[in-house]
Amino acid sequence: MNTSEQVTTTDVLIIGAGIAGISAAYHLKKYRPNSSFLILEGREKIGGTWSLFRYPGIRSDSDMQSFAFGFKPWTEKRTFGSAQMICDYLQETLTENGIDQHIQFNSYVTSAEFSSSEGIWTVKVKQKDQKNLVTLRSRFLLMGTGYYDYNNGYSPEFQGSEDFKGQIVHPQHWPENLNYSGKKVVVIGSGATAVTLIPAMAKDVEHITMLQRSPSYVIAMPSVDPIALALNKVLSPQRAYEIIRKKNIALSRGMYKLSRRFPDVMRRLLIADVKRRLPKGFDVATHFSPKYNPWDERLCVVPDGDMFKAISSGKASVVTDHIDRFTKDGILLKSGKTLEADIIITATGLNMLAFSKIQLTVDGKKIDYPDTTIYKSMMLSDIPNFAFAFGYTNIAWTLKVDLVWRYFCRLLDYMDENKYGTFTPVIANKDMKRVPFVDLSPGYVQRGLAQFPKAGTEGPWEFQHDYEFDLERLNKGPVVDKALHFTALLPKKKLAVVPESNSDELKIKA
Question: Transmembrane segments in this chain: where (predicted)?
Fold first, then answer.
């Protein structure tokens, strides 16, 4: 039998070994120990974003007590974890829970087709360096693929870029051992990546400049939480973690709500805090006073005000202007000023990508994601036995992920109890208004939204980036309602084959 004819079967197939996929695996292990599952990871390592991006200083922009899993305490002292710390934490989660042997690396999913007559997903997988596709069969398909293109970051066309004699680098494709010691560096962008790069590189460069078309809100937060330190000294790690987590969630949600309710007040407070951290006379009005309201875009966190310290030291500066063109020696601005550079870093954002462009088909009909509507923040209309996890835009991303997969396990329990084989979200009100599922205004979001599913505006179709709302709906609410349709379990041979190791080759059952 050749590779293209080989088939593996499992109860649940998880695509992606990042935070979402690992959380799904943990919840299945804990709450569904008799369910077999397999994780497919397109790359050669776990971690998603945190193992892909390698630029200096990369770290979380949410506090780790909120960002880490609810079931595994974050025990490091640092509030904002580095990429390596996060990857180590994820690996510990895999090892402690025996998830390692369920992962197959270098396995790219190209398509998945659901058959209602069988109640089964048939998934095609391309393995690295293999010509033929592998076929997998699974009752349930879970997506933990994130929301952006892992292969290509977004970089606009800059006139004259071919004339620049230095090096142009995108943070998503950071060269190994890039030498920027004693160099003049310009970072194009003003978001989370830019404010991370500036202080991380400032101590080694001759000078580093953040070039922005318009400013973002930047807020300084302590890198070590003294309350967390105190609680960890007197309480068990799990108990201390629970208290710190609740505190941080409450503070984050409180700041967000105040920003939406009293935007002018929050704007003044945020800008005043920046002003007191920078040298007297610094042009805060030009460089750190956005035209939009707080939380129209995410706030950029700088631990211990590290970027402000870099600016105050004279090693870093901010220029707010528009690019005319790249030149041989740097960047010519619309104002006529030239920024000299040896290295230009285009921290210009991501390319959003819906479900890694995996083509879904249901009973022969190809699914166009924008035509679907999101159900309870985790399923898609008219697609059976399918779930996904997108995190929050206004608080730690991972908080949504744990809620989604706990709900999914409760749903499978309900199906077992009632001998159901499939679930399918179905819209009753065909005239329901549909809206974008994200309301943030960054360019990369607005560019990519058209390829994603829409949210509804009523009942379980409503999509809110609201942790309290989802906590009530997904964690405490019933798993069924009128919009979720079930069919009886079809008589079939039990699917119970799982991989035996975490080697790069799939363990195939013919």
Answer: none
